[in-house]
Write a structure and sequence with these properties.
Strand order of the largest sheet: 3-4-5-6
Helix content: 25-40%
Number of domains: 1
Order of helices and strands: HEEHHHHEEEE
CATH class: Alpha Beta
CATH topology: Nuclear Transport Factor 2, Chain: A
Structural class: alpha+beta
Radius of gyration: 17 Å
Largest sheet: 4 strands, antiparallel
Shape: globular
Strand content: 25-35%
Distance between the termini: 23 Å
Length: 177
Amino acid sequence: MSAGLLVLVAVSLAGSLTGCSGTNQSTDSGQGSQSTMSSKDACEALGRRLTIKLFEKDRKTLAKHTNDLHNSGEISPAAISKLEQEGLMERTVEDATKTALALEKAATDISLAIDSTEQGEVKQGKIPVDVKGKLIKTSPKGHVSQPFHIRYIMVIQKVKDGSAYTPVAEEITVLPN
């Protein structure tokens, strides 16, 4: 399976997150039953989704991913500031557009393959989620693969309208492999 296909599958799986409730529950929307994710599934899905948006440097999606990361509410403002200071996240959509143009000029993309997503033990309301995989740099010179390990520390918060709960990444750390 190609790395691009793995990323597409991960995006499809992660995109199904609509909220979380602490346990599996059914809600009736008047049009049949719909199951919400457990908080474990929701946290792992968010970890995968954030990893893709943070580290995949595709010239076609980089600006959109940057905008989503800044405006989705899925990452705390403190974590966003830290990522920007460490150079792991573009500060603005304009910066992302410049990066995308440089990647296009160099005919380079950075995709990723997620190998595992694992939630650790919850301590004091903090939920560690480890995402491991490979970054794949594709350029005219060929493919280069590098392993990665990201740890997210998440908390569960009520959404703005108070109707559901959702995970939010409070801390994001790149760990040694």
